[in-house]
Write a structure and sequence with these properties.
The chain has 231 residues and is mostly helical. 67% of the residues lie in helices and 3% in strands.
Amino acid sequence: MTHAVSNNKAEYERIILYINKTKMETFDTRFSHLNLSTFFRDHYGVYTLTDVQQKDFLALSSSLTEEFIQRSRNYTLMLELEIVKYFIDFMRKNQRKSPVSTLNTYQKNNKYQTVYLIADYISEHYCDSLTLEFLANKFYLSKCYLSRIFKEVTGHGLNEYINILRIQKAKQLLEETSLNISEIAAYTGYKSTTYFEKIFKIYFSVSPLKYRKMQSTMCFTLPITSDEKNS
C-alpha cells in the first residue's frame, strides 16, 4: 500500500492498494470460489467510488496499517483476510457495473487488451529502461495514443505506473535483503540514486534508508507473547 500527494495547486492525497497478478492468483488458489482474477479481467478499468465506498477503503487502509505496525501473531494472514473480505464486498456491489467507458464492445476489448499486454510487459521488465517512446515503438502505437489509453484503462499515467511497480519492489528489497540503497535503485531500474530516493519519498513519505531503519526497529522491538515463547 502506498500513498502520494499531487503536485498540483489543488493538492489531494491518493492511496493506492497495489495487488499484482500473482497475488490475485494466490488468493484464488487459497479461496477456490473467490475468482478475483477473473472479476478484474472482466471488469478492468477505473471505478468511481461512492462516499460510502471511499469510507470503506479508508477503513481498510487504516486497518492494514495498524496490523502492519503492530505485527501481532499471524498478522500476515490477517492482512490477507482483510483484503479478501474487502474485495468480496467490492465484487458484490460492482458485479453489475462496468468501469467508465463509452466505447463499443469491440473497441473497448481491443483497447483494454492492448493495455493488458503493455502492463504485463512493464511488470516483467520494470528494471529495464522504459520510456513512452520505447513502449510505443514496441507495441506499434503512437506515443499520444498509448499515453491516453493507458491512463483511461489504469487510472495512472505511464510513468506513474512504472514508478509504482518499481517502488513496491524496492520496498520489498529494503525489507528482505541487505542490498544498499544504490544497489536497490539500480536493481529497480533507476539510474540515479538521488532520483530513486525522491520517488520513494513521494510514496512512503520517508527516505529508503529511514524506511529500512523503521522496519528494523519494529522487528526488534515487537513484544513476544507467552504463546510464542511456548511454541
